[in-house]
Write a structure and sequence with these properties.
The complex is a heterodimer of chains A (238) and B (493). With 238 residues, chain A is an alpha/beta fold. Chain A has 9 helices and 12 strands. Chain A is globular and about 60 Å long. Chain B contains 21 helices and 13 strands. Chain B is elongated and about 95 Å long. Classes of the chains: A alpha/beta (238), B alpha/beta (493).
Chain lengths: 238, 493
C-alpha cells in the first residue's frame, strides 16, 4: 500500500540509521547512564526547573513539605472562587491529601476515575464544571520548564485541560535535565513494555496562550489560564 | 481541493501593495515574529543553533531518501498501536476518506485544530456539503472561517486582521457585539467554542511530526484546542502530508528545539501532544478510534525531483515568510494557494502545476534571507532559480514562460557575451547612442521598447568613456614598454 502510493518498490535503507539499529541493551545502558547523571545533578536540576518554569509562565510554589503544599493548593482554589475541583488518581495524592484540605474550606473534589462508578460522559462533565484541576506528573523537564503527563487509567486527559486553573504537583525524582533524557526514557519504556508506550503523552509548558490577533499575547484561550507548579520537596534536595 | 488562484499573483500583489491597511498589518506582523525568533536564537547561542539546524537537515535528508521505508514502518507501528492508516493520493481522495468516516460514524459536528493539509483539501467545504458542521477551533483559523477567507500566514492565519476587524466579525457572525479588547475577543472564542470542543463527535488535527519508530503523531500547539480535538471526541482523525516522518523518538528533540524558536520565538510551545493510538480500554477519556490520513497530493512529484526534494523538509515554521521582502509587501493571499512566501513559491508550483503558477518562482529578489533563517537549511533561492530556468526552457507540462522576445533577447545576450569583438563593437555603438539619454553617468529611462522595461523600476549605469578593458590594455602596453625598471608590485626590489 505504501509503495503503491509512492509508485516505488520496497527496499532497504540507503545507509543504516543509528538510532533504529540500536539494540535494547544499548538503550538500557544509555538510559542507566542518563539516570545516574540526573540523580547526581538532582539538586541543580530541581533549582533549574523552578527557574525555567517561572519563565514559561508557571506560578511556582517551592514547598518544603506537604503542609506547605496543601496550604498553597487551598489558597489557589479560594482565589479562583471554585466550588468544585477535579483531580487525577495518582500516588502523589496518597501523601498529599488534597480532598480533605479542600473539603475543609468547602471545595468539593471529585476524582476523575471510572473506579468511582462514574461513566466517561459523567467524568467529562465533572471536568467541564470544575474550577480547578489537580494532577501529578510523570516527568518534569528542567531544560524547558515543562511537565509531562501520561494519560492512563486514573489520569484523565481533561483533568489538566478543561478547568481554567491547573495545579501540577512535581517531586524531585520526576525531574529530568533535557528533552533528550525524556525521549531516551520513553524509548526504553516502549521497547521494554512490549512496544507499547501508552496512547498519549502531554507536555505542558505554562498556560494556554494565543497571539492570533495582532500578535498580542493573550493568556488562556482554550486551555487553563492559570497554571501552578507545586514543587514538593519532601526529599529535601533543594 | 482548495481553489487555485496562483495565476492571479501579479494583479493580486498590486492590490495588496495599494491597500494601506494591509501594509500596516504586514509591517507589524513580519517584524514581530522575526525579532522574537532572533532573541530566542541568541539565548540558545548561535553555535548551538547551527549545530541543531545541521542535524535537522541531515535527519530530513536521510528520511526523504528513504521515505518509502519509513512510511511503511510508520504504517506498521500505528496499526500495531490500534490506529488505522489511510493513504490518499490527492485532495479529493483525502476528502472522501474523511467524509466516509464522518458519515459512517454518524458525526454531526467535527472540531478542527490547525492543519495546512486540510486547507489544501478544502476540507471544511467538503464536510459542509454533506451537512456536517466543521468548526475551526484555533483562534486564528476560527476568525478566518468566520470571514470566509483562507489563511494569510502559515503560523498566524489571521495576522492581517485588526482587532476592529475581528470585533466586527464577532458582532456580525456570532452575535457578540461591542467587544473591543483582544483579551475579550479571545475570551469570547473560548466561551463560544467550548461546547463544541467538549461535545463534537469527531476531532480533526494536523501533524507536525510523525515518529516512525513508535507510530506516534506529534502536534505542537499553544491554545489547547489541539488537546481537546485529540482528547474529547469519540474519533480522532489526523491529517498529514507524507513528508512529516522522522525516524526515531530521539530525533524529535532536535525538531522541538527548532520549530517553536523559528516560528514564534518560543522556547517551547505551551503544549506538545503525542498520540500513539486510540485510548486503551481502561483509560478515563480519549478517542475510541484513531485514524491517520497520509496525503500525497503532488508530494511524490517533489520527492522524485532531486533539485526540489529538499523542500519536503519544511517544518512549516513560517520564518521564511517573515523575513521575505516580497511576502512582507504582498502578504499571504497574493500567492493564490495554501503556502505563501518563499517556501510557497517553491512548492505551490509543483503541487498545483508549474503552468498554473508561472509567476511564483519570480516572487523573490533572491536576497537569500529565507535560506539563512530556515531552521532545516532548505536552499530556497537555488530552488527558485531551478524553477525559473525550467520555466524559461519550457517543459513537457507547462510549456515555456519565455516569450519570443525573451528567447530572442536571451540568444542575443549569449552571442554578445561570448564574443570579445562583438562586445567591443556593442560598447562603441552604445557610447554613441546613449548620448541622447545619459546624464552624469546614469540612464534614467531607455525610451526604446522592449529595453525600457529595465529602467521602469531602476536606473542604469551609462557606458563609461573608457572601459575597464581599455584601461587594462593601456596599462599593459605601458608595462611592456619598460619591463624591468620598476619590478612587479609586491616583489622585493
Amino acid at each position: 500500500m505504501v509503495q503503491a502510493s509512492l509508485g516505488k518498490s520496497s527496499r532497504a535503507l540507503t545507509e543504516p540509521y543509528g538510532p533504529l539499529d540500536e539494540d535494547l541493551d544499548s538503550i538500557r545502558e544509555r538510559a542507566a547512564a542518563a539516570m545516574e547523571r540526573v540523580q547526581r545533578e538532582r539538586a541543580e536540576l530541581w533549582e533549574r526547573l523552578g527557574d525555567t518554569a517561572t519563565k514559561r509562565g508557571w506560578n511556582v510554589c517551592r514547598a518544603a513539605g506537604v503542609e506547605e503544599g496543601l496550604e498553597y493548593v487551598c489558597n489557589v482554589a479560594s482565589a479562583a472562587e471554585a466550588p468544585r475541583a477535579v483531580r487525577s488518581d495518582q500516588d502523589v495524592f496518597d501523601s498529599m491529601p488534597v480532598d480533605a484540605a479542600l473539603g475543609a474550606q468547602g471545595v468539593e473534589t471529585a476524582v476523575m476515575s471510572q473506579d468511582g462508578g462514574s461513566s466517561r460522559a459523567e467524568l467529562k462533565n465533572m471536568a467541564a464544571m470544575a474550577g480547578v484541576g489537580i494532577t501529578g506528573v510523570d516527568y518534569a523537564v528542567a531544560e524547558t520548564g515543562s511537565v509531562v503527563v501520561l494519560p492512563r487509567a486514573g489520569v484523565a486527559r481533561l483533568a489538566s485541560l478543561a478547568p481554567p486553573v491547573h495545579i501540577a504537583i512535581v517531586r524531585p525524582h520526576e525531574v529530568l535535565a533535557t528533552l533528550d533524557d525524556l525521549f531516551l526514557f520513553r524509548r526504553l519504556a516502549y521497547y521494554e513494555g512490549d512496544r507499547n508506550m501508552g496512547s498519549y503523552l502531554n507536555f505542558i509548558t505554562g498556560p494556554s496562550r494565543t497571539a492570533d490577533i495582532e500578535q498580542k499575547i493573550v493568556i488562556g484561550v482554550h486551555g487553563p489560564k492559570e497554571v501552578h507548579l507545586v514543587m514538593l520537596d519532601e526529599e529535601k534536595v533543594g | 481541493m482548495a481553489e487555485v488562484k496562483t495565476k492571479e499573483f501579479v494583479p493580486a500583489s498590486r492590490r495588496a501593495v495599494d491597500n494601506p491597511q494591509l501594509q500596516a498589518a504586514l509591517k507589524r506582523a513580519g517584524g514581530g515574529f522575526d525579532s522574537a525568533r532572533m532573541e530566542a536564537i541568541e539565548e540558545l547561542g548561535e553555535e548551538r543553533w547551527q549545530e541543531l539546524r545541521e542535524r535537522a537537515r541531515r535527519i530530513k535528508e536521510h528520511t526523504l531518501e528513504n521515505l518509502d521505508y519509513y512510511l511503511e514502518l510508520l504504517y506498521n507501528r500505528v496499526t500495531a498501536n490500534g490506529g488505522q492508516v489511510h493513504f490518499a493520493a490527492d485532495a479529493q481522495e483525502a476528502n472522501e476518506i474523511i467524509s466516509e468516516l464522518a458519515l459512517s460514524r454518524g458525526a454531526k459536528t467535527v472540531t478542527k485544530s490547525k492543519s495546512m493539509v486540510s486547507e489544501e483539501m478544502g476540507l471544511n467545504h467538503s464536510l459542509e456539503a454533506l451537512g456536517i458542521r466543521s468548526v475551526e477551533t484555533d483562534l486564528g483559523e476560527y476568525i478566518i472561517q468566520l470571514a470566509g477567507e483562507t489563511p494569510f500566514h502559515i503560523v498566524g492565519p489571521a495576522i492581517h486582521k485588526t482587532k476592529e476587524d475581528v470585533s466586527e466579525l464577532f458582532a456580525d457572525k456570532i452575535d457578540r457585539p461591542g467587544l473591543v479588547e483582544i483579551e475579550d475577543l479571545a475570551e469570547t472564542a473560548r466561551e463560544v467554542l467550548r461546547n463544541d470542543l467538549l461535545q463534537a463527535d469527531m476531532g480533526i488535527s494536523g501533524a507536525n511530526f510523525l515518529v516512525a519508530e513508535t507510530g506516534t503523531l506529534v502536534i505542537v500547539t499553544n491554545e489547547g484546542n489541539g488537546r481537546f480535538c485529540t482528547s474529547s471526541p469519540r474519533i480522532h482523525v489526523a491529517l498529514t502530508g507524507m513528508e512529516k516522518v522522522v525516524p526515531s523518538l530521539e530525533d524529535l528533540a532536535v525538531f522541538l528545539r527548532l520549530l517553536p524558536r523559528a516560528a514564534t520565538g518560543q522556547r517551547l510551545t505551551s503544549y506538545v501532544s503525542m498520540v500513539s493510538g486510540p485510548r486503551a480500554p481502561m483509560e478515563e477519556d480519549g478517542p475510541e478510534e484513531f485514524h491517520l490520513v497520509i496525503v500525497n497530493n503532488g508530494r511524490s512529484r517533489l520527492l522524485q525531483d532531486e533539485k526540489l526534494r529538499g523542500a519536503l523538509s519544511c517544518i512549516r515554521c513560517g520564518a521564511c515568510l517573515n523575513i521575505c521582502p516580497v511576502y512582507r509587501k504582498v502578504g499571504g493571499h497574493a500567492y493564490g494557494w495554501v503556502y505563501p512566501g518563499p517556501i510557497g513559491a517553491v512548492i505551490d508550483p509543483v503541487l498545483v502545476g508549474l503552468d498554473k503558477a508561472k509567476d511564483l518562482p519570480f516572487a523573490s529578489s533572491l536576497c537569500g534571507a529565507c535560506r539563512e533563517v530556515c531552521p532545516v537549511k532548505i536552499n530556497l533561492p537555488h530552488m527558485l532559480l531551478t524553477l525559473r530556468s525550467r520555466l524559461m526552457e519550457g517543459d513537457e507540462e507547462g510549456g515555456s514562460k519565455a516569450t519570443l522576445m525573451d528567447s530572442a533577447m536571451g540568444r542575443g545576450y549569449r552571442t554578445l557575451m561570448s564574443s570579445p569583438a562583438m562586445m567591443s563593437l556593442a560598447r562603441k555603438v552604445g557610447r554613441v547612442t546613449q548620448v541622447a539619454v545619459a546624464r552624469k553617468g546614469w540612464i534614467r529611462k531607455i525610451p526604446l521598447p522592449p529595453f525600457d522595461r529595465w529602467t521602469r523600476a531602476r536606473d542604469m549605469r551609462a557606458i563609461p568613456k573608457e572601459s575597464f578593458r581599455d584601461i587594462w590594455d593601456k596599462e599593459l602596453s605601458k608595462e611592456n614598454a619598460q619591463p624591468s625598471q620598476k619590478g612587479r608590485k609586491g616583489e622585493k626590489p
